[in-house]
Specification:
InterPro entries: ANF_lig-bd_rcpt, GPCR_3, GPCR_3_9-Cys_dom, GPCR_3_9-Cys_sf, GPCR_3_Ca_sens_rcpt-rel, Peripla_BP_I. One of its GO terms (molecular function) is G protein-coupled receptor activity. It comes from Clarias magur (Asian catfish). This protein has about 950 residues and is α/β, with parallel strands linked by helices. Among the domains are: about 5-80; about 85-220 and about 365-400, Response regulator (Rossmann fold, 3-Layer(aba) Sandwich); about 220-285, no CATH class; about 415-455, no CATH class; about 625-760 and about 905-955, 3-Layer(aba) Sandwich (Rossmann fold). It is about 30% helix and about 20% strand. The chain has 26 helices and 36 strands. β29, α19 (about 710-720) and β30 (about 730) form a beta-alpha-beta unit. The chain starts with 6 loop residues before the first helix and ends with a helix. The relative contact order is 0.07.
């Protein structure tokens, strides 16, 4: 089945296979073993799903070292070597050619960082040093590539290991060409060492020539080519993949059972088409890499079944003895798993195959990028690794500059000289000083550090003394934990090799999220002053940075619920978590917290998937699910008679589930989707180009857009570039109030008239004064407030010179105040996410009030003091139960309650209009409450300042 390399698809496919379902009323036998998936990320998910059922899976391409952990992945096997072994192979090559000074460019994910760690482990005690490490992250690719190239230019290292995806390598190498950086020897990981994308790019011919690569081993499969060339749709009429291959290869639709697929729009095939003489990626068997791994996986499964079923083989000494196996009915997943562990057979090529803790023996091809007769790049097999034995035909290597590169920090000292390691640099970098008078040396006899006393020669380097987390804390009888993404982007890996690595704080400070955190502070202070709510119980808070990335958010949430704070001191564990902002992080954290019954209340996670209480029983939110904004857009389409609507959506749960909800809402109406175009960030340029082309060719003039605001910006700019006008956009909440888009002058014509669904805005009495009164002198431990002060006033707050010197800014005078400042912190004119955070704190407080059986002030008996039970009785399970029962009236007179963890749908409807100066602004023109949509149509500014453009077109299309 197709996995689409995306977990919703792969998960659905695997559940269908193990259940025997096939999407119809018919069923097939359940699969006893799964071969797949190709990507490590999908395998992690699927292995965890299949593990409780003891169902084994064999991957043919997942290389992450994490799978070597049998406790985590006891049912996982693979026919490809772990990344650990290719890192070791690169170290062996570095040793062989005397490269002691090596740079590294790695993907900032498990793939790159774990490979780098393996490389470091293997080089211990070898004299090989890392000159630099530069990381690349796809979401900031251009910036990271620029930094990596600058590091390379400034470094004396001439050999560079690269653990990066081929698409990112292309940009990296192209930038090197642009800056005329030459004379580098690249060591390529398997993910790009045989990449046709790179080999076919003529711009890279010079820079990449000479590359040495570790490649997934290639092997022949006797008879396989004949099998492929004899494939024909009439042999496999139900094979839709083969049908699509036929259509793409021959430009016709195969005739099956005297019928042709009219949906393809292609002419019928003659029936004489054949793959016999076709050369493409299907029929090319010259380098079977992933294909051979899959072939091995099938044989491994077969030999495990052979063992399990106690099959007998032909006996040459007794030909009368029948062969056979026990009934397959005895097969259980647990037994098959056990027998798979014991698999040991010889392949048709005479190689031994077996699993050792789910791993196969390391086997790699070593390839070299050389110029072909026509000048184009091609890879040539020049060696092989088997186990730990590296065999290379050095005479077959084509080197950059036609000679073996030299990459050392310092050449070996001559006779009569000794090494003196340069202070602050790795041991590979040293000076050569002559021996003292009367001394003689024909070897390096000593190593000392310049300027060091004897005691300093050997210094233990402890873990870096950095704050583990950034956040705010106030003690109380009950602690409310909160996750806020104060910083947006994860850091690059800073490996100085002078301290144990640690998870660094993120960067790209998000000013507006300070207001979210202060909503927690303000609400807790307000509740503590309220004699009717939690009387006698003092609420506290602990707010930590999540960085919107799971390693950070996971570490923060574990710290919150354990009471740890990165030091030897501890605080009270948080009983409830307010957060996360994103759906992806919320899914991860909800699953972690669910087993502990710790409730969490998100203020911005909108994914429809989180409504599944079986999956997320501890998840609550103060923002409506995306299903409601899709319904709101459907209502607007009905209201204005838009029956022909296009859709541009993010290619993830956010966009796809929203468009599905729109389809559900428009069933039985005259509204139709003219097209659906998806956008995925990793292929943004290509997807935007396709979406705009589809829009240009479509007669639909109303387009709903469910995409991140940064992607919407690229999309709208492309529309401007192509002069596509007269479109009415329906904006989802994620970009309907985006200051990034509204402040972009390029978009003021194309985006004018946009109608948007926005997170509802509400007032919080007293919050503005609280924000304006903030000052670092009142909260000396608040690192976030200090950063805000530095960003706002250009000075460093504090009473001593230490703080000022660390920031590099002059000290503040102490008279600075936020009272007259207008920014994302002090602006309370449109409290959207902030109000959701505020509501979440109150929901937690009312749940605690109920759980602790709190009594309220009695007007008829003023002597009876209000009180609550001891907070010691609080358990996560009880708090979860009482949170489900929360029902209170807000200060604005609105009823608030949870229904299966959801809140009633409330949205603002906004319209993008020109202000007197010509700039874009959004104007409130309506509201949705429940299913009631109220719009002031007379207040709407339409594109082209006329609604007739849309109405005339629509009615003429009906």
């Amino acid at each position: 089945m197709d996995s689409c390399s995306r977990y919703p698809h792969s998960l659905r496919a695997v559940m269908s296979m193990i259940s025997g379902g096939n999407g119809t009323c018919e069923t097939s036998r359940p699969a006893k073993l799964i071969i797949g998936d190709s990507a490590s990320t999908q395998c992690m998910i699927l292995s965890r799903v299949l593990s409780p059922m003891n169902l084994p899976m064999i991957s043919y391409l997942a290389t992450c070292m994490c799978f070597s952990n049998r406790r985590e992945y006891p049912n996982f096997f693979r026919t490809i070597s772990s990344d650990m072994f290719q890192a070791r192979t690169m170290v062996q090559m570095a040793k062989r050619f005397g490269w002691t000074w090596v740079g590294a460019v790695v993907e900032e994910n498990d793939y790159g960082l774990q490979a780098l760690q393996a490389f470091k482990e293997e080089t211990k005690g070898t004299g090989i040093c890392l000159a630099f490490v530069s990381t690349i992250f796809r979401e900031r690719l251009e910036k990271d590539v620029d930094r990596a190239v600058k590091l390379m230019q400034s470094s004396s290292a001439r050999v560079i290991i690269v653990f990066v995806w081929d698409k990112d390598v292309e940009m990296f190498l192209t930038e090197l060409v642009h800056r005329n950086v030459t004379g580098r020897q690249f060591l390529a990981s398997e993910v790009w060492s045989t990449s046709s994308l790179l080999l076919n790019n003529p711009d890279l011919t010079t820079i990449a020539q000479g590359t040495l690569g570790v490649a997934v081993r290639s092997a022949p499969i006797p008879g396989f080519e004949k099998h492929l060339r004899e494939l024909h749709p009439r042999q496999y009429p139900q094979d839709t993949i083969l049908r699509e291959l036929w259509e793409r290869t021959f430009g016709c639709s195969p005739v099956l059972n005297n019928m042709v697929d009219s949906q393809s729009g292609l002419p019928p095939c003659s029936g004489k088409e054949s793959l016999k003489d076709v050369q493409n990626s299907v029929t090319d068997v010259t380098n079977l890499r992933a294909t051979y791994n899959m072939y091995l996986a099938v044989y491994a499964a077969a030999y495990a079944l052979h063992s399990l079923l106690q099959c007998t083989t032909p006996n040459s000494s007794d030909p009368t003895m029948a062969t056979g196996c026990s009934s397959p009915d005895i097969i259980t997943a647990q037994q098959l798993l056990e027998h798979l562990t014991l698999v040991n057979f010889t392949t048709q090529l005479g190689e031994k195959f077996y699993f050792q803790d789910g791993e196969t023996p390391a086997v790699y091809d070593i390839v070299n990028w050389q110029r072909g007769p026509g000048g184009a790049l091609q890879y040539v097999l020049i060696g092989r690794l088997e186990g730990s034995n590296l065999i290379i035909n050095e005479s077959a290597i084509s080197w950059p500059g036609n000679m073996v590169p030299v990459s050392v920090c310092t050449a070996e000292c001559p006779q009569g000289a000794r090494k003196v390691i340069k202070k602050g640099l790795p041991v590979c970098c040293f000076d050569c000083l002559p021996c003292a008078e009367g001394e003689f040396s024909n070897v390096t006899v000593c190593e000392v550090v310049v300027g060091a006393t004897q005691e300093e020669n050997c210094v233990y380097l402890d873990r870096a003394q950095h704050l583990d987390t950034v956040g705010l804390f106030k003690d109380g009888d009950v602690i409310i934990g909160a996750l806020i993404n104060f910083y947006m982007l994860p850091p690059t890996l800073d490996l100085s090799f002078t301290e144990e690595p640690y998870l660094q704080p993120c960067y790209e400070f998000q000013e507006s999220t300070v207001q979210w955190a202060q909503a927690v502070v303000f609400a807790v202070d307000e509740i503590n002053r309220n004699p009717s709510l939690l009387p006698g119980v003092r609420l506290g808070y602990r707010i930590m940075d999540s960085c919107s990335r799971y390693p950070h958010s996971l570490r923060s949430v574990m710290s919150l619920i354990s009471g740890g704070n990165g030091t030897c001191e501890t605080t009270r564990p948080a009983k409830i978590i307010i957060g996360e902002a994103t759906s992806t992080q919320s899914m991860i954290l909800s699953r972690v917290l669910s087993s502990l019954h710790v409730p969490m209340i998100s203020y911005l996670a909108t994914c429809v998937c989180l409504s599944n209480k079986r999956e997320y029983p501890n998840f609550f939110r103060t923002i409506p699910s995306d299903i409601y904004q899709a319904r709101t857009m459907a209502q607007m389409a009905k209201r204005f008679g838009w029956t022909w609507v296009g859709a541009v959506v993010e290619d993830n749960d956010y966009g796809l589930q929203a468009v599905q909800a729109f389809r559900e809402e428009t069933k039985g109406t005259d509204i139709c989707l003219a097209f659906v175009s998806t956008i995925f960030r990793e292929r943004l340029s290509k997807d935007v180009d396709r979406a705009v082309t589809v829009m240009q060719s479509s007669s639909a003039r109303v387009i709903m857009v469910f995409a991140w605001y940064v992607d919407v910006e690229v999309f709208l700019i492309e529309l401007v570039r192509r002069n596509v006008t007269d479109r009415q956009f329906l904006a989802s909440e994620i970009w309907s109030t985006s200051s990034l888009l509204l402040s972009n002058p390029t978009l003021k014509t194309i985006a004018q008239g946009t109608l948007g669904v926005a997170v509802r805005s509400a007032l919080i009495p007293g919050l503005e004064k609280h924000l304006q009164d903030l000052h670092p002198s009142r909260y000396p431990q608040d690192m976030i407030l200090r950063v805000l002060w530095e960003k706002t006033f250009g000075c460093s707050p504090g009473q001593n010179n230490t703080i000022a010197s660390q920031s590099g800014l002059p000290p503040c005078s102490g008279k600075e105040t936020l009272e007259g400042v207008k920014n994302g912190v002090t602006d309370v004119s449109n409290l959207r996410a902030t109000y959701n955070v505020y509501l979440a704190v109150y929901a937690a407080a009312y749940a605690l009030h109920s759980l602790l059986h709190c009594t309220e002030p009695n007007s008829s008996d003023p002597t009876m003091a209000p009180n609550c039970s001891s907070p010691d009785i609080i358990t996560a399970q009880k708090l979860l139960e009482h949170l489900n029962l929360v029902n209170f009236t807000t200060q604005l007179g609105e009823k608030f309650y949870f229904q299966d963890g959801e809140t009633p749908a409330v949205y603002d409807i906004v319209n993008w209009q020109r202000d007197p100066g010509g700039a874009l602004q959004y104007v409130l023109i309506g509201r949705l409450e429940g299913s009631n949509l109220i719009i002031n149509e007379s207040a709407i500014s339409w594109p082209g300042n006329s609604r007739k453009v849309f109405m005339i077109h629509i009615y003429s299309s009906v």
